[in-house]
Specification:
Blueprint lengths: L1 H39 L6 E10 L2 E8 L2 E7 L2 H15 L7 H16 L3 H11 L13 H13 L11 H20 L26 H16 L3 H12 L3 H5 L6 E2 L4 E4 L9 E4 L5 H9 L19 H14 L6 H14 L4 H8 L4 H7 L3 H17 L3 H16 L3 H15 L12
Antiparallel strand pairs: 1-2, 2-3, 4-5, 5-6
Helix pairs in contact: 3-4, 7-8, 7-11, 8-12, 12-13, 12-15, 13-14
Length: 439
Amino acid sequence: MNRKIDSIVKQANRASKRAARLRSQTETPTLTKLCAQRQEEKESPPLRVWGPYQDSPTRFRLKVSEAGIERSLSFATNEEAENLKEELLSKHSQPQHITIKEALAEWTNWLVRVRGSQPSTIENYVKMGRMLPMDRKLSQLTENDAKKLYEHQMERVSKHTARKYSVATNHLYLWVAIQLWKWAMEQGYCQTNPWRKVTRIGKQSKGKPQLRIDEARKLEALALKRAQGGDTAALGTLLMIYLGLRQGEVAARVARDIDDDGRVLWVPFGKTKNARRRLKIPEQIRPLVQRLAQSKRPDELLFYPASHSKYHQGYYGVRVKRLCRLAGVPEVVPHSLRGLHATLALEGGATADAVAKALGHSSFAMTEAHYASPSSVSNARSSRVAETLGQHPPQVAETKMQLLSDLLKDLTAEEIANMLTQLRSKCGTEPPLVEIQPT
């Protein structure tokens, strides 16, 4: 009797599983019918599909959202789930026909709200986005349209320079377009990214032209002289050279960022998450920075005019070039001083990791690719090889110590005392006390 009951229970479980599979299969035509019905009624509720997610070796799930209603569909294989997803997105989703202008505004707001992008970054994205046909429907742009727009961008002439836009600007234009449509696909505003197959044209140059060492010394001497006379822009330029700061990081510093009696400069935020750092201010400009900070309120800008309502990148660009002209050296942009700092630091023996951290980079790869000159990198590596090869083995060191010991035996107590005095003045530290035995 019990065996019959167990058999009935097993049969019921199997029937329940078969019914569940049938229900999941019948949900698809039901969803299709609902989309067709709403299409006839000229409604366009956004349909979004996530997945497939693998719940078990034989269970793959899609999550579908339509008009605020979410449901899950299960499939036996990943292939079945992918096929249905493609069919739903291609046939039954009704993207909202918003313009590129509306999408650009929503995307940039999302970047600020969700990603925490800096205003200067958003400003560049908006500037690139405005080169797109703003009044055109975003979902109607085809791959052929995207290719023609990019080719047209390559031929455009800047109103400010009267020259064609640089390769870097055109690459940024294409990158912004790709990211904008990628985000729009996630929001259900379009089904494909027409920019995905557009090929970048041209090779982007890396790094900025840098001053040579003697030229840098001339610029530094002039900037220091003007900073001592009260020129805050010259003092900000020195910070770019000495500390490798970005011009925006210099302009954003307030009085409370100067700490420890002018010895420390705090950078609490910046272009990237690695920009937050604490830097030591060189002694030659410490009094100038400290005096300037003491004359300001804690939240008042130090190296940028408080009268300016908005930061403008051209502020330091104009002033650095003017200093270059007065110093009689080639004109460079502020960002070039950041690269100069990396080059001189490596030439001076600083480690690659130390230079990268000072610039606010997560690794030396970025520093090497865009800032430090190739020769400084190779020279630093050669120096480390020479130092390694120049290290004496223990036998040589022991021989030297033995020679020194033999030499000390022949010295009088007075001669040894004089030698200790000389060592103390040269090293700047107190050597350990030595009991001198009379000979």
